[in-house]
Amino acid sequence: MKTMTCNQLGGACEKKFSAETFEEMAEISKQHGIEMFQKQDEAHLNAMSKMQELMKVPEEMEKWFESKRKEFEALPNS
């Protein structure tokens, strides 16, 4: 089990997520993002806007995603 924060995953807060795989971590982060969007949390909406800009350039999005995967994989198991 590894732990990352919303902030580490491109979000806007220090909420901690724990997962066995990076794919699971990404899904947990996505669900948190949906919750924050529904609450119209301004800080998270700003972070989402930055991610949407990144997604306009698939190569950049892939680089970002791979850097987060490597960061996850380098974390110690908790």
Supply database-style keywords.
single chain, 78 residues, mainly alpha, two-stranded antiparallel sheet, 2 strands
Short description:
The chain has 78 residues and is mainly alpha-helical. It is 62% helix and 10% strand.
Q: Would you tell me the overall average pLDDT?
A: 95
Q: Would you report the number of β strands?
A: 2
Shape: globular
Largest sheet: 2 strands, antiparallel
The overall number of domains is 1
Description:
The model has no long low-confidence stretch (mean pLDDT 95). This protein is mainly α and 78 residues long. The chain starts with a strand and ends with a helix. The chain has one domain (2-74). The chain has helices at 22-38, 42-55, 58-74, and strands at residues 2-5, 16-19. The longest helix is centred in the middle third of the chain and has 17 residues, at 22-38. The relative contact order is 0.20.
Helices and strands in order, then pairings?
Blueprint: E1 2-5, E2 16-19, H1 22-38, H2 42-55, H3 58-74
Antiparallel strand pairs: 1-2
